[in-house]
Amino acid sequence: MDVIEQEIRLSFRYPVHFTRGAFASSNPILRDLLTPPAPDARARALVVVDSGVDAAHPSLRQAIAGYFAAHQATLALAGPVVVLPGGEQVKNDRAHLDVLLDAVHAAALCRHSYLVAVGGGALLDVAGFAAATAHRGIRLVRVPTTVLAQDDSAVGVKNGINAFGKKNYLGTFAAPFAVVNDFAFLSTLSDRDWRGGLSEAVKAGLIRDAAFFDFLETHAAALRSRDAEAMEQVVRRSAALHLQHIATCGDPFELGSSRPLDFGHWAAHRLEQLTEHRMRHGEAVAVGIALDSTYSWLAGHLPEASWRRIINLIGALGLAVYAPLLGDTLQAPDAERSVLRGLAEFQEHLGGRLTIMMLEDIGRPFDVHDIRTDLMLRSIETLQRLDAKGVSRTAQKAS
């Protein structure tokens, strides 16, 4: 056999900044990040903004223009600020991606130019997909504006849009050039979005850091009541845990069959899909975490005391552990709208052997490759009974 085998090793490095007022002219972070391609040139950037952020911050576009004007010696806006819808609607309609790609093309961005994306996780996913595919990769700077994006999705390497009724069916693995977490944007979030992002922090504690889970328990009341200082600590620690996992666990681009950072997500993605995304991602993740934690307990892996701590924390943060659609699954486990069909979709998305993360204890995850339908249905029944007793029902209206 005549064969040449070549190994290519790539190293990725990107900073995650924590700040306030990223577009204040006195804040040097963006100025220093957007480096010109040559000593006598200016760094060219196109900015795309989430429409919800644009509405909540009416002076934002003016501030962006002012920032580039204040630093015009080294920075240049390559075109008008692009405003796209936020939330899953921007990922469900490819026309929004085309609008952004048209703007990138019209601005004549190159691989040494920048796309600066300001918004929630869905908008950042679309911007990341556009940046990764235009010229096979232009530099992406994420400025996440929600708890969920700042503590989880924006610091990772995944981008994508929804297609064929499936979440993130089209996408790329591409590291950002940089992430700028601006805490000031969190102040205008709705209570629903403030709480929703905390589910990913709970997940990070469960699979990476029991001490962080303890911190969330201790500060649950403060977090629910919108204590900014407590939230900033949570965002920073959760982001750090996600980054550590991506960098140190050997599979940042998900070439294998295990996906620890998606603990609880097989059910969450299915719930989002079945509710046509009326149920927000963070809300669905909270239910998914509760479901898989309950399964872990009923299967004899997770101590009951630890299970109760998990359920109680989710409720204390103002999130639900149950959604009515789970009750539909109890009535017809094999039906088209059964949540259990999310297991097959989860396996298809990653490929290989079905691999679902469960818990031996808080901070001690492990993988299973078979899910017992009867035990999963018992888990749903358990959560249904808890819901009937009044455990937080934040997700009820969405489902």
Write a compact overview of the structure shown.
This protein has 399 residues and is an alpha/beta fold.
Question: Could you list some keywords that capture this structure?
Answer:
15% strand, alpha/beta, disordered C terminus, seven-stranded parallel sheet, single chain, two-stranded antiparallel sheet, 11 strands, 399 residues
What does this structure look like?
It is built from 18 helices and 11 strands. It is α/β, with parallel strands linked by helices. The strands form 3 sheets. Strands 1, 2, 3, 4, 5, 6 and 9 form a 7-stranded parallel sheet that branches. Strands 7-8 form a two-stranded antiparallel ribbon. Helix 5 crosses helix 6 and helix 9 packs parallel to helix 14 (281-298).
Layout of secondary structure:
Blueprint: E1 16-19, H1 29-33, E2 43-50, H2 51-56, H3 60-70, E3 75-77, E4 82-84, H4 89-92, H5 94-106, E5 114-119, H6 121-133, E6 139-144, H7 147-151, E7 158-163, E8 166-173, E9 178-182, H8 191-196, H9 198-208, H10 210-218, H11 220-224, H12 228-248, H13 265-274, H14 281-298, H15 304-316, H16 324-331, H17 341-350, E10 356-361, E11 364-368, H18 373-388
Parallel strand pairs: 1-9, 2-3, 2-4, 2-5, 5-6, 6-9
Antiparallel strand pairs: 7-8, 10-11
Helix pairs in contact: 5-6, 9-10, 9-12, 9-14, 13-14, 13-17, 14-15, 14-18, 16-18
